[in-house]
Amino acid sequence: MIKEWATVVSWENGVAKVHCDVKASCSSCASRAGCGSRVLNKLGPQTSHTISVPSAEPLVAGQKVELGISESSLLGSAMLVYLSPLVGLFIMASLFQVLFGTDIAAMCGALLGGVGGFLLARGFSPALAKRETWQPVIISVGLPPDLLRTTTSSELSQ
After folding, report:
1. 57 secondary structure, DSSP code
2. CA separation, residue 102 to residues 38, 95, 108, 116 (Å)
3. Which 3 state secondary structure label does DSSP give 52?
4. Residues 61-120: pLDDT tens digits?
5. Terminal alpha carbon distance of the chain
6. Domain segments of the chain: what residues?
7. Which of 19, 22, 31, 107 is nearest to 63 (CA)?
8. Residues forming beta bridges with residue 113, ordered by sequence position
9. pTM attached to this predicted model
């Protein structure tokens, strides 16, 4: 199970809306100063995601929850997104090369196959996303933010 912490935005009728921040995986690497991936991450938009997760337990805004998703669903969705355009590209490029015998035709077939594979993945993804096994679940719940109180040493001396 792949786990990630998220912050509750709201909870009503057994559904919690949670806010997940996107973290760059290269921030802890020893060679981050000269890394090209880090530069590309800085160029892109800093995104965050808000998703709905079923929760029988009432939650309050600001509360931390640990979300989990199975590895098989993550691998399945990655294969759908990345492999279907690649397979379409190779199949259609080969087919156009055999049928027409020119590199231009193979290039056009590759373009058509890649776009077709992308559209195929886009069409299948909503149906697959409805599967219960592909949905994130709440694994553990942190304390509500108003339950935990901290005091500093200057507050204790008063």
Report:
1. S
2. 40, 11, 10, 21
3. strand
4. 989 999 999 898 889 888 999 999 999 999 999 999 999 999 999 999 999 999 999 999
5. 48
6. 2-25+42-149
7. 19
8. none
9. 0.65
